[in-house]
Design a protein that fits this description.
The structure is a single chain. The protein is globular. It has 2 domains: 168 residues, Nucleoside Triphosphate Pyrophosphohydrolase; 129 residues, no CATH class. It is an alpha+beta fold and 316 residues long. The chain is built from 6 helices and 19 strands. Strand 9 and strand 10 form a beta hairpin. The longest helix is centred in the last third of the chain and has 19 residues.
């Protein structure tokens, strides 16, 4: 992460200030960035022209609520000290993780589209696996979630956050300072594993177990996690995974081919895929049908643990 472009002159800061706390997670195969974002809730029904608001049930109100995550920000007044204000906000933030001591370091700021962005390195905290539900406000997010999915679980990441990092890509990659020339570490992608509610604590502690059929570690997308049909609730574990050299099989069909030719082609492709998938000297993982299958245990990092009602898609 290149912070050399940040300014340290705090006397120039005025107006809207966005706090950008981050940590460099060093617990996995490679170090990677995570950004602390704040979840906001907006009740769409709380409008002056909605006369039925008081008569609505709790469930109806819940369905109309919009949750999204964004930067923690404030409007800097002339009587406010900008660093003291940021420090107060960060101290409250880290109380959510039962962290009392102040371990963050101010790294500088920049001006973008009329607003200031102040960066704080919070790596000394090393916030690891923790349980989260919809009432939690602080979400430690991956760059993959911010840039590619623009979602963390079911919560939308503010476009302002995604656009900021898309336009400042020096803050989404980590350099390997020991390499010459400089190369960047692989950035992990977000993936999920579903489980029974009883196994949630075990998997959130020890990680995903290898599949009994192929010995690989399987993960999927948020919308496709396993549902425990025998229970009212299921567990969802959120991971950062390092696919490495990933095989992505695809079909290349000839629409003019006869049925016999198509069957022969499919058989050849299947044989080639099976041969390549078993050659782990070439590949570290495979992605097929919304599922990642990883070769080694150390390609997964446990991030957060959640519960879901089986008749609903989202975490509770």
């Amino acid at each position: 992460m290149n912070t050399d472009l940040l300014s340290s002159d705090i006397n120039e800061i005025k107006g809207i200030v966005n706090i950008v706390p981050y940590q460099i997670n060093r617990t996995g195969k490679y170090p990677f960035l995570q950004y602390f974002l704040l979840k906001y809730s907006t009740n769409l029904e709380e409008q002056e022209d909605n006369l039925d608001f008081e008569n609505e049930t709790t469930e109806e109100k819940q369905q109309k609520r919009e949750d999204y995550v964004s930067f923690l920000k404030f409007n800097l007044m002339t009587f406010m000290d900008v660093l003291e204000t940021c420090a107060a906000a960060l101290d409250i933030l880290f109380l959510s993780f039962s962290e009392i001591d102040s371990k963050y370091e101010y790294k500088g700021h920049l001006l973008y589209e009329g607003e200031y962005y102040m960066f704080f390195d919070c790596s000394e905290y090393q916030i690891l696996t923790h349980n989260l539900n919809t009432k939690n406000d602080i979400w430690l997010t991956l760059v993959d979630e911010i840039i590619n999915y623009k979602m963390v679980c079911q919560f939308k990441i503010d476009d302002k956050v995604s656009n900021f990092f898309l336009n400042h890509q020096e803050f989404i990659k980590l350099e390997n300072s020991e390499s010459n020339p400089i190369i960047y570490y692989e950035s992990p992608i977000v993936a999920y594993a579903g489980c029974t509610s009883k196994k949630r604590d075990f998997i959130s502690t020890f990680g995903q177990l290898p599949d009994t059929n192929d010995g690989l570690y399987h993960f999927t997308q948020f919308n496709d996690v396993y549902i425990d049909s025998a229970s009212k609730r299921s567990g969802i574990i959120r991971f950062a995974i390092f696919p490495g050299n990933m095989r992505v099989p695809f079909e290349n069909k000839n629409i003019l081919a006869t049925e016999e030719e198509e069957e022969e082609t499919q058989e050849e492709e299947t044989q080639e895929e099976e041969a390549e998938l078993t050659d782990w000297n070439i590949y570290d993982s495979v992605y097929l049908d919304k599922t990642w299958a990883l070769k080694n245990y150390d390609q997964q990092i446990i991030l957060t643990s959640h519960l879901r009602e089986n008749d609903k898609l989202y975490i509770i």
